[in-house]
Write a structure and sequence with these properties.
2 copies of one chain form a homodimer. The first copy, chain A, is built from 5 helices and 10 strands. With about 250 residues, chain A is α+β, with helices and mostly antiparallel strands. The longest helix of chain A has 13 residues. The model of chain A has no long low-confidence stretch (mean pLDDT about 95).
Chain lengths: ~250, ~250
């Protein structure tokens, strides 16, 4: 038995998210079907995490165990030949059987991209959110600094999902203005359900002056999702990287 | 009567080309329908030229005459609010009634983008052509230099279309390697039907070693479309700019 580890990149526009579902098209569903076609048996995949409907990925880590003599390269080529054009495998390697892409994920990096320009563009319509109003980047950065570090992020967790602990560590939260785009990169040891999109929605309200940067501390302390900003659309979000210890 | 000049940008993926057709969705058809909805009367548009099915544009010039008191800005806003997400107006201005965007076009610039990398990417699948094999850029540039200047480009004209003259002037033909992309920019005083895509197909055959750069001179002299390279796919092509004299 071998344990393959794939790095997947995908355009999430057409999918109901990563995780397999009975009655919807998902990245995991398409991948497992393609692996079954190649390996001629049912394959179960493990993932570094889920992404929501419409969210994209540059590097999503997925693993599966299989008895096969195929070389890594042959398997990668077969996958890229058979997967739809909106999913691709950029890397394939092997890990010990004990490896688990989710439990061993040390950190993840996400990017949220805003088109901050007066005119929309047809070419980034699936990958950015159009926001044609002025944004105070300095205020947003000030707010972002207060979110860095270890905090209870309950105020930014989707109301309907509860995990054992809502304490997470944000290692970096940086905002770059590269006209016409504003990109918000968040790296942390893990993220609660919709946490990134709720943080971005709150940062946008700081950027447009509806909130002050200083408010963030209070929001964290109050732990109340009703007080933080809206969940921004999925299409602006991309999973950039998942970091594992070397195996 | 006023004469409005629009700069359009569009993702051509979903369209049967620019020019209006009875039974197909076209950029011009969608634009004229939207203008009729805004101005409450039939509007005929003039264009700087056609683009084929699947070809994109960053700046396509379109003009129309209308009796209206709407400001340029209000008209632009109305268009961008009502046009589908894959078409946008980036600029609006006015010209004398005598202006014609095609007859007065002095030069046009096109870009053809090749993904020249071992792995495909979901994110550029509609805007590039995937070519995972090595390309000799130096040989391609040598071939490109022989295409610059004034020539009879009959050898690169689609067989089924004939124009009065197939003589055109290519002002610039440059090839840039910016991994993972190879871009070919062509600027000229006008282009024959499928001329850009036939030139790119021939340059690719120089790049992969099937032809020598020196062959180009002979191909131009022989004026035979059967001897030049294949027409590359439309999706890699984008109309970058149309230049008019100031009006």
């Amino acid at each position: 038995m071998r344990h393959f580890v794939l790095t997947l990149t995908y355009d999430g526009t057409q999918y109901a998210g990563f995780q397999i579902q009975k009655d919807a098209s998902t990245i995991q569903g398409v991948l497992e079907k393609t692996l079954r076609d190649i390996l001629k048996r049912k394959v179960r995949t493990l993932s570094s995490g889920r992404t929501d409907a419409g969210v994209h990925a540059l590097s999503h880590i997925v693993s599966f165990k299989a008895k096969t003599r195929m070389s890594q390269n042959a398997l990668k080529k077969a996958l890229n030949a058979l997967l739809p054009q909106d999913i691709a495998v950029t890397r394939i390697t092997e890990a010990p059987l004990s490896f688990h892409p989710r439990f061993e994920a040390m950190k993840k990096r996400y990017r949220y991209t805003i088109r901050n320009h007066s005119a929309r563009s047809p070419f980034d319509r699936f990958y950015t959110v159009f926001y044609p109003y002025p944004l105070n980047v300095r205020a947003m950065r000030k707010a972002a600094r207060q979110l860095q570090g270890q905090h209870d992020f309950k105020a930014f967790q989707a109301k309907d999902k509860k995990e054992r602990s809502s304490v997470r560590h944000i290692h970096r939260l940086t905002i770059q203005k590269k006209s016409p785009y504003l990109t918000i990169d968040i790296e942390g040891n893990g993220f609660l359900y919709k946490m990134v999109r709720n943080i971005v929605g709150t940062l946008l309200e700081v950027g447009n002056g509806r909130r002050s940067p200083e408010e963030i501390k209070t929001l964290l302390a109050r732990k109340n999702r009703a007080l933080t900003g809206p969940t921004v659309p999925a299409k602006g979000l991309c999973l950039l990287k998942v970091v594992h210890p070397p195996f």
